């Protein structure tokens, strides 16, 4: 039985594929996108989220820490590098100012949560979506749980950046109904700058996936002055002419999740970024539609 670190199991999700869905967020991603709104999904290990606005400096966590890793500084309980993420401080924080993200769960434990909402999937033509992070970083876990889903005829979607070994795709492809596939930038240098990795593997995997005849929704985040200019849009259109897919979802940038960076003590660029104007979003939508591409704004 395989395990993976799970960040969250979100019930009644309506933006991660058709119908009412349960979305399972797995931890770990090889990309470091500037606009990532789930920064807690990037690291493969457990992490501590600290909600400084909730902390009253009562010191209960200080007393409970076995490694003396917490000190009261300027009225806040600050954690240092001696923390081993044991969770004692979380258990004794009366204001829920501390949270460990990344719980090891087995395929059976996750599946037990999934089937609780099986009735909603059937009535809405929904199902289960695996997201992250990058779910394809956990191919053995996915394979085991996807087989369970298919045994109950549950619709399965995989939300992926496309940046994973093709072997990982091949391992699970027979058990997936829909791929939600990100295209973030067509320019390799900019992809390296804003995502931290090349886009070659993303393009190569999408071409291969397209040849399998699986349903694919292309998802393109739109960030002003990053990827919303004509040259990038036209490059995307030219590339997609050779890809078989059902629709393109354009996702205007939002700042949701920016507070998580402070809670994780991570650097963020989110404040520097903006969404394109409503007018520009509609212009981009028309550019795709004029090329014969079915477009939806939003998830």
Automatic annotation (TrEMBL):
Signal peptide start-end: none
Residue span(s) of domain 4Fe-4S ferredoxin-type: 46-75, 76-103
Pfam families referenced in this protein's UniProt entry, alphabetically: Fer4, Radical_SAM
UniProt keywords, alphabetically: 4Fe-4S, Iron, Iron-sulfur, Lyase, Metal-binding, Oxidoreductase, Pyruvate, S-adenosyl-L-methionine
Sequence ranges assigned to domain Radical SAM core in this UniProt record: 15-294
Metal-binding recorded as keyword: yes
InterPro entries to which the protein is assigned, alphabetical: 4Fe4S_Fe-S-bd (IPR017896), 4Fe4S_Fe_S_CS (IPR017900), BssD/PflA/YjjW (IPR040074), Organic_radical-activating (IPR034457), Organic_radical_activase (IPR012839), Radical_activat_CS (IPR001989), rSAM (IPR007197), rSAM_sf (IPR058240)
Cofactor: [4Fe-4S] cluster
Molecular functions per Gene Ontology: 4 iron, 4 sulfur cluster binding; glycyl-radical enzyme activating activity; lyase activity; metal ion binding
Record PROSITE patterns: 4FE4S_FER_1, 4FE4S_FER_2, RADICAL_ACTIVATING, RADICAL_SAM
Transmembrane segments: none
CDD domains hit by this protein: Radical_SAM
Entry's family note: Belongs to the organic radical-activating enzymes family.
Annotated protein name in UniProt: Pyruvate formate lyase activating enzyme
Organism of derivation: Oceanotoga teriensis
């Amino acid at each position: 039985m395989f395990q993976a670190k799970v960040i969250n199991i979100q019930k009644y999700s309506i933006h991660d594929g058709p119908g009412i869905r349960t979305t399972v967020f797995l931890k770990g991603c090889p990309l470091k996108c500037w606009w990532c709104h789930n920064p807690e999904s990037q690291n493969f290990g457990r992490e501590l989220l600290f909600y400084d606005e909730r902390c009253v400096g009562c010191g209960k966590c200080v007393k409970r820490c076995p490694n003396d890793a917490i000190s009261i500084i300027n009225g806040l309980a600050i954690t240092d590098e001696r923390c081993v993420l044991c969770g004692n401080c979380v258990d004794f924080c009366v204001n829920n100012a501390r949270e460990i993200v990344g719980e090891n769960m087995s395929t059976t434990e996750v599946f037990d949560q999934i089937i609780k909402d099986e009735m909603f999937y059937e009535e809405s033509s929904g199902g289960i979506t695996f997201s992250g992070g990058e779910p394809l970083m956990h191919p053995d876990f996915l394979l085991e749980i996807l087989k369970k889903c298919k045994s109950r005829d549950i619709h399965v979607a995989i939300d992926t950046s496309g940046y994973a070994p093709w072997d990982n795709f091949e391992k699970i492809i027979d058990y997936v109904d829909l791929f939600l596939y990100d295209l973030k930038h067509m320019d390799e240098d900019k992809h390296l700058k804003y995502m931290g990795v090349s886009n070659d593997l993303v393009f190569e995997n999408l071409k291969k996936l397209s040849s399998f005849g699986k349903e694919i929704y292309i998802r393109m985040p739109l960030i002003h002055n990053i990827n919303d200019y004509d040259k990038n849009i036209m490059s995307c259109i030219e590339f997609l002419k050779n890809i078989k897919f059902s629709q393109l979802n354009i996702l205007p940038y939002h700042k949701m999740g920016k507070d998580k960076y402070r809670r994780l003590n991570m650097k963020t660029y989110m404040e520097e970024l903006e969404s394109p104007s409503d007018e520009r979003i509609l212009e981009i939508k028309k550019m795709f539609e004029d090329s014969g591409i079915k477009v939806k704004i939003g998830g």
